[in-house]
Write a structure and sequence with these properties.
It is a single chain. Helix 2 runs parallel beside helix 13. The chain is mainly α. The protein is globular, with a radius of gyration of 19 Å. The protein has helices at residues 3-16, 22-39, 44-72, 74-77, 100-124, 129-142, 156-177, 182-202, 207-212, 218-222, 224-248, 261-274, 278-305. The longest helix is centred in the first third of the chain and has 29 residues, at 44-72. Helix content is 73%, strand content 0%. It has 13 helices and no strands.
Length: 309
C-alpha cells in the first residue's frame, strides 16, 4: 500500500469515527428491542442490513459536516487548547489527512451505498421504509450543507434529536414489525433528548470558533452560562419522560432509565464549574456519553422485559 493510499485510508476511518456510531446504535437496538417486546418479532438479518445503512449515512453526514465546517472557517478557528476528542469535527482536513475533494467523494459514495441499501430494503422487505430513509438522508445532508445549513441556523440540536430519536426508532420498529405504533414514538423521545444533550455539551469547546464562523447554534445564541442550565434541563426532561413511560406503557422497568442520574448530576456539576476550562470540562463530555450508553442498555432491558408483563 503506497503512502497516498494509506493516508486516505487512515483519513477515512478518522472521518468515519466508529466510536461515535454508538449514537445510532442505541436507538437501533432500543427500537428493535421494543419491537420484540411488543410483538415478539426480531429479524437479525434485516436489523444488520439497516444498521449498515445507518452507519453509511453517519459517515456521509460526517463528511459533509467536515467539508462545510472547513470552508466556513469553523474548524480552522479552533485553537489547539480547545481541541478535544469530543469536539472540533473529525480534524481530517485541518490535519492534512484528507483533501477537500476526497471528503466530497467519501460523502457521495457513502450516501450512495446507503441509498442502495435502502432500495434493497424497499423491494425485498418494506416498501414503506422509503419515506423514513429519505428523511434520514436529507436531514443528514442539510444538517450542514447550504442552503439549509440547519446546524448554522439554530436547528442542529433539534435535527439531531429528531433523527437519532423518533426517526431511527420508528424506522427500525417499522422494519421489524411492518407497522407504525405510537408507543414506539413515546419510547424514542428520551433517546432524542439525550443525544441532543450529547451534542449540546460537545459544543462548549467549539463555542468561540462557532461564533467566529457564524455557526449560530443555540449555545452560541445563549452563551455558556445559560447553556449549562439548558444542559441540566434536558437531563431533567429525559428522566421525567422515563417516569411517564412507566405509567403510559404500564411497565415499571422503564424506571431503570433513572440509574444514570448520578452520572448526569456529575456532568452538570462539572459543566457548571469548568465551562471555560476545556481540559477539565471533558469530564462532563465523558459522563454525558456514559449516560447515553447506560440509558441505551437500560431501555433495551426494559423493552424486552415488557414482553413478559
Amino acid at each position: 500500500m503506497n503512502a497516498d493510499v494509506r493516508r486516505v485510508w487512515q483519513g477515512f476511518w478518522q472521518l468515519a469515527d466508529p466510536k461515535i456510531w454508538i449514537a445510532s446504535t442505541v436507538p437501533m437496538v432500543v427500537g428493535a428491542a421494543f419491537a420484540f417486546g411488543s410483538t415478539g418479532r426480531f429479524d437479525l438479518y434485516w436489523f444488520i442490513v439497516a444498521l449498515i445503512a445507518v452507519y453509511c449515512i453517519e459517515i456521509g453526514k460526517n463528511a459533509v459536516n467536515e467539508w462545510v465546517d472547513y470552508k466556513s472557517g469553523v474548524d480552522r478557528f479552533i485553537t489547539p487548547d480547545k481541541r478535544t476528542p469530543f469536539s472540533g469535527g473529525k480534524k481530517t482536513i485541518v490535519d492534512g489527512k484528507l483533501t477537500l475533494p476526497e471528503v466530497v467523494m467519501i460523502a457521495v459514495v457513502t450516501f450512495a451505498v446507503a441509498c442502495g441499501i435502502g432500495l434493497y430494503i424497499m423491494f425485498f422487505k418494506e416498501m414503506g421504509i422509503f419515506w423514513i430513509g429519505i428523511a434520514g438522508v436529507l436531514l443528514s445532508i442539510f444538517y450542514s450543507l447550504p442552503p439549509f445549513k440547519l446546524a448554522y441556523r439554530g436547528l442542529g440540536e433539534v435535527t439531531v434529536g429528531l433523527t437519532f430519536g423518533p426517526l431511527i426508532v420508528l424506522g427500525i420498529y417499522y422494519l421489524q414489525t411492518g407497522r407504525v405504533d405510537l408507543s414506539a414514538l413515546w419510547v424514542s423521545i428520551p433517546i432524542g433528548i439525550l443525544i441532543a444533550n450529547v451534542l449540546w455539551i460537545n459544543q462548549f469547546p467549539d463555542y468561540e470558533a462557532d461564533a467566529q464562523g457564524n455557526k449560530r447554534n443555540w449555545l452560541v445564541r445563549l452563551g455558556k452560562e445559560k447553556g449549562v442550565k439548558v444542559f441540566a434541563l434536558l437531563f431533567l426532561a429525559a428522566y421525567l419522560w422515563f417516569i411517564l413511560l412507566a405509567v403510559i406503557l404500564r411497565n415499571p422497568f422503564w424506571l431503570l432509565g433513572l440509574v444514570s442520574v448520578p452520572l448526569a448530576v456529575r456532568a452538570v456539576k462539572v459543566a457548571g464549574q469548568y465551562y471555560n476550562d476545556i481540559p477539565r470540562l471533558t469530564e462532563a463530555n465523558l459522563r454525558m456519553v456514559q449516560v447515553y450508553q447506560l440509558t441505551g442498555l437500560t431501555m433495551t432491558v426494559a423493552a424486552i422485559l415488557g414482553r413478559f408483563i
